[in-house]
């Protein structure tokens, strides 16, 4: 039986006053880096985002629930988009994967500068007529702080978010992981104060993962004195679920006139999936068949 490399665990304290999700995502982020041929700053930004997205996906209640996170800043990185599902599958991309390496005042990759100022939008699709859409301003562009702010502003859910990606000199991902802690309504002042203190002094997530600590060990090490209980372990993976049928539906949705234009001007069409860079080629006859489908 193969070892699960990327996964999220869920725990709750003995008083049921907060819940915590911790993820190890090193191999998953490396797969995303290779897929998109990312420079280090883009790796850090997308790695943090898909780590958060994977945790948020696992948080959903029903198997078909889907959550998307879109970060639109005015920095050179462009848009960051992530889609995650309850089953642990997550995919994502950045607008500019080739952004130059820049270091901030702390000597770290300048993700905040790359993202810039703008909005963070979360879309939760529960299979209903209309998805739930929440939005908040980006406060730093560092993603973890922005997501924590989003939870308070848009969902009235006090949350602490820690996300980290370490990149090697050869550009590969050395370590990646994340944690989301959500305070529950019945938390006492004492527990809240202890929780805040632990978060202030804790070692960064990426460093803990790099030192070889598993999510279970991080959970126990941080919250053992608060009677933490491990409830769930869920495998997560960077997987794109695109296929030719889905791309066909997207083409049909643009309308017959647009498809006819593709036939007349380009004698076919080539579409690339943003999430996995797979190319889909449609000949003139393929497009003609799509027009027939659109007319039915």
List its traits.
single chain, 296 residues, alpha+beta, five-stranded antiparallel beta sheet, globular
Q: Summarize model confidence as the mean pLDDT.
A: 92
Structural class: alpha+beta
**Number of DSSP strand runs:** 13
**Backbone shape:** globular
Runs with pLDDT <50, length 5+? none
Strand content: 25-35%
Strand order of the largest sheet: 7-6-3-4-5-11
Rg (C-alpha, Å) = 21 Å
Number of helices: 10
Largest sheet descriptor: 6 strands, mixed
- N-to-C order of helices and strands: EEHHEEEHEEHEEHHHEEHHEEH
For the record, give the distance between the C-alpha atoms at the N and C termini, rounded to a whole number: 48 Å
Q: Helix proportion of residues, in percent? A: 25-40%
Task: Give an overview of the whole structure.
Helix content is about 35%, strand content about 30%. By secondary structure, it is of the alpha+beta class. The strands form 3 sheets. The chain has a 6-stranded mixed beta sheet. Strands 8-9-2-1-10 form a 5-stranded antiparallel beta sheet, with helices on both faces. Strands 12-13 form a two-stranded antiparallel ribbon. Strand 4 (about 80-85) and strand 5 (about 90-95) form a beta hairpin. The longest helix is centred in the N-terminal third of the chain and has 20 residues, at about 40-60.
Secondary structure blueprint with pairings:
Blueprint: E1 7-12, E2 18-24, H1 26-36, H2 40-59, E3 66-73, E4 80-85, E5 89-94, H3 111-115, E6 118-125, E7 132-137, H4 144-155, E8 159-167, E9 173-183, H5 189-201, H6 205-210, H7 215-223, E10 229-235, E11 237-238, H8 244-253, H9 256-266, E12 268-272, E13 279-283, H10 284-295
Parallel strand pairs: 5-11
Antiparallel strand pairs: 1-2, 1-10, 2-9, 3-4, 3-6, 4-5, 6-7, 8-9, 12-13
Helix pairs in contact: 1-2, 8-10, 9-10
